[in-house]
């Protein structure tokens, strides 16, 4: 029987699946050790989307009042089903819970799929980092939600919260 999509905080026993997806998604993947270290950092929040197993994940860092989307990926076989959108929204809601004033991220200039996803969530290009990615010296676009603390954006977040997939049943609301 197939299991419905749900969201959960990443756990140690998700790491193997997460790293497999990471390797499929990025030419410069984070190591399992890097993810494990993130799990123990109080300023990091790591989420997974699960069905039969992990199908995607996202990582948010808080630096004072800046929330930074540090990682977001969906298994190639599970793309275009709204999982990336759900994870991004979960991270944005986490940013709100942690009182972020604004949200930032870097994205490859060639990564039009991710840029579209971010633009649909209020991210705007505010800068360009030359040769940011070490594997091919590709530039990064710096994208920011500057309107994060406006009433309009907070209302939008509340709507998105209502549309999120449920928490996985072994997940405790924190
Ligand atoms: C970017 C990524 C996370 C999107 O995940 P996904 O689950 O496929 O995305 P969703 O199905 O939730 O799509 C949400 C929106 O993103 C945009 N999008 C996603 N994939 C797209 C594509 N291939 N082409 C154009 N737009 C795309 C669309 O606006 C889409 O909305 P729509 O389906 O209504 O048109 C996924 O493509 C991925 O893991 N890529 C590799 C890793 C990566 O680039 N991460 C981001 C690093 S900054």
Structure notes:
The chain is of the alpha+beta class. The chain has a single domain (6-163), classed as 3-Layer(aba) Sandwich (Aminopeptidase), CATH 3.40.630. The protein is built from 5 helices and 7 strands; from the N terminus they run βααβββαβαββα. Strands 1-2-3-4-5-7-6 form a 7-stranded mixed beta sheet, sandwiched between helices. Strand 3 and strand 4 form a beta hairpin. The chain is globular, with a radius of gyration of 15 Å. It starts with 5 loop residues before the first strand and ends in an 11-residue tail after the last helix. Bound molecules: coenzyme A. The site of coenzyme A has 19 residues, from strand 4, helix 3 and helix 4.
Radius of gyration over C-alpha positions, nearest whole angstrom:
15 Å
Using the alpha-carbon principal axes, give the shape.
Answer: globular
Order of helices and strands: EHHEEEHEHEEH
CATH topology value: Aminopeptidase
> Helicity level, as a percent range?
25-40%
- Helical segment count: 5
Cα distance, first to last residue?
29 Å
CATH class call = Alpha Beta
Adjacency order of strands in the biggest sheet: 1-2-3-4-5-7-6
What fraction of the residues are assigned to beta strands by DSSP?
Answer: 25-35%
Which ligands occur here?
A: coenzyme A
- Fourth-tier CATH superfamily name: Gcn5-related N-acetyltransferase (GNAT)
Please give the domain count.
1
Question: Which residues sit in consecutive blocks of at least 5 with pLDDT less than 50?
Answer: none
Note the main sheet. 7 strands, mixed
Give me the secondary-structure category: alpha+beta
């Amino acid at each position: 029987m197939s299991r419905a999509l749900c969201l959960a905080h990443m756990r140690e026993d998700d790491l193997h699946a997460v790293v497999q997806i990471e390797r499929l998604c990025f030419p410069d993947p984070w190591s399992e050790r890097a993810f494990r270290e993130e799990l123990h950092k109080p300023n990091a929040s790591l989420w997974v989307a699960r069905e039969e197993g992990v199908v995607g994940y996202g990582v948010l860092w808080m630096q004072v009042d800046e929330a930074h989307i540090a990682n977001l990926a969906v298994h190639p076989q599970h793309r275009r089903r709204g999982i990336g959108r759900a994870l991004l929204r979960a991270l944005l809601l986490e940013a709100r819970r942690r009182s972020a004033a604004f949200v930032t991220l870097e994205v490859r200039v060639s990564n039009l799929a991710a840029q579209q996803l971010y633009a649909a969530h209020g991210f705007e290009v505010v800068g360009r980092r030359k040769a940011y990615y070490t594997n091919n010296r590709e530039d990064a676009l710096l994208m920011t939600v500057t309107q994060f603390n406006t009433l309009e954006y907070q209302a939008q977040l509340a709507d998105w919260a209502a549309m999120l997939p449920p928490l996985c049943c072994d997940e405790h609301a924190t």
